Amino acid sequence: MLVAIVTGAGNGLGKAYALQLSKLGAKVVVNDTGGNRHGVGQETGAADAVVKEICSLRGKDFAVPSYSSVEHGDSIVKTAMDAYGRVDIVVNNAGILRDVTLKNMTEEDWNLVMKVHLNGTMSVTKAAWPIMREQNYGRIINVSSASGLYGNVGQANYAAAKMGIAGFSLTAAKEGGRNNIKVNVIAPLAMSRMTETIPSTADVIARLQPEYVAPLVGYLAHEDCAVNGHIYEVGAGWVSRVRWQRSNGIVFPKDGMTIDTIAAKLDVIENFDTDATYPTSLFDSLSACEAALADEKSN
Ligand code: NAI
């Protein structure tokens, strides 16, 4: 029997993930503070309603609520350990918005979003980590966003947190791999109270439902999951992998790198059509420098 923690599972996407995982047989800790989409307020009803739904579908001990904020990962993991004695799956999904342009953003807007998304993801992961290492098994799904991967006006705080979650996850995947802990990232798209103000056509809205995202979470949480450290975009039934692409670039000769030579060679620096690569590690950067210098010497 597998045990899953889904944060922010009282609404929207998190609720769909909790239901999906329970359908696959997992017992679920349904975590939610029950605040509004700006992170204001607190109530137990959101988590309780999802617990009730899972228990009525699966059986009475198939879900338990946790009302802690994700900033307190220890408390959420303790709920899982007290109820079920293990943690196999963590879906770091909880989120809030404080959308505002950089010009008008307050430190509070920044800190609140960072605290829930980035610190929360770290806190729950860190609390589950020793348990997963000990049992040599873990599946962690972290939630990023196209806003973070590509940038979005009015969301510098949210985008920074979401890109941070991607970087955090790529590192956790490298560290966890040897203990069979797989950490992957999704950037979902679905209508929820978080996205209700985004304009779209009726057709698209009809398909942009959490149920078209949840199966990917089910796959990444599965014991047969074949991937680690991958980032996926997913929405409306569309699933796609995102990766870095790097141009082959150029090596300037010693003393030849100036503002003018960079401007003159910008088209080469930015050329992805010839010999572009897909780096996956820091060492890929180091070896690219080494290869470029070796090339220079041999010429
Ligand atoms: P939602 O607002 O419906 O659900 C988020 C849930 O997180 C809420 O139930 C809320 O009470 C809970 N929550 C907020 N702060 C919390 C905290 N400190 N501790 C525990 N729970 C907390 O939003 P939605 O759309 O379902 O989003 C889920 C995740 O997916 C978020 O991380 C969001 O950033 C991400 N996302 C959603 C997209 C979409 O299209 N809906 C797009 C890209 C990313």
UniProtKB/TrEMBL annotation:
Signal peptide from the UniProt entry: none
UniProt-listed InterPro entries: KR_dom, NAD(P)-bd_dom_sf, Peroxisomal_Beta-Oxidation, Sc_DH/Rdtase_CS, SDR_fam
Keywords: Oxidoreductase
GO MF assignments: oxidoreductase activity
Domain of life per record: Eukaryota
SUPFAM superfamilies: NAD(P)-binding Rossmann-fold domains (SSF51735)
PANTHER family per UniProt: DEHYDROGENASES, SHORT CHAIN, SCP2 DOMAIN-CONTAINING PROTEIN
Family: Belongs to the short-chain dehydrogenases/reductases (SDR) family.
Protein name per UniProt: Ketoreductase domain-containing protein
Source species: Thraustotheca clavata
